[in-house]
Amino acid sequence: MNGPVDIGLVxxxxxxxxxxxxxxLAAVFRLRLGKTLLIGTVRTVAQLLLVGWVLxxxxxxxxxxxxxxxxxxxxxxxTWTAARRVARPPPGTLPAAGLALTVASATTAVVxxxxxxxxxxxxxxxxxxPIAGMITASAMNAAALGAERLVAEVAxxxxxxxxxxxxxxxxxxxxxxxxxxSLRAALIPSVNAxxxxxxxQLPGMMTGQMIAGADPFLAARYQIxxxxxxxxxxxxAAAILGSILxxxxxxxxxxxxxxLLSPPSTD
Length: 267
Hints:
about 270 residues
């Protein structure tokens, strides 16, 4: 068999029946998730079909400006999403997230496509857009997780940080343990994935390659590249965003900004 097996309307309807069964199960256990699952299902179908239609046009055009535009859209949505996930975001979280994701995603995507995969041209939308999408989504999650953990760590270590400041430590020295803990938290999912890939699960890239008819060893090589690129992008995004936000907790006089650590008002 060469190439992927086509999934027709009947196949999609049968797949939809799985979601319908999930909604029924949620109703049986009174999870109050029926409406959310239904909305999510409709959005999934609409969004993926729309993306498929748009990408078909982009693939056929093979215009670098369209590839860049698609990448910018992905980065913009990822930036907004990452900033929103931080419950008590310090000032400047949105632009800081934009910088972190742009540097991490752009650097990784260019290195992987231009130097490792090497399609012709290197920015070929069929390669660059899916790879950049995986990188940006993963970096977004790592950056958001790290930022959220940083806020929690600074709040939990408030007394210790103020004590270090009183003893003459710089803000970076005072917040170093909190920053380190946040970066570890951001990278734990990536590390766990490295330890279990191929044993606990066959990841999406490898599975997709094999379904499309690729040799399992070629699919494995692609998946190795994917795992390594995601670890790098996650680390860079979390480190940049965490380093920027860590400074925002202090005034120019090296005082901890206590108002940033207060729980959000419920009024």
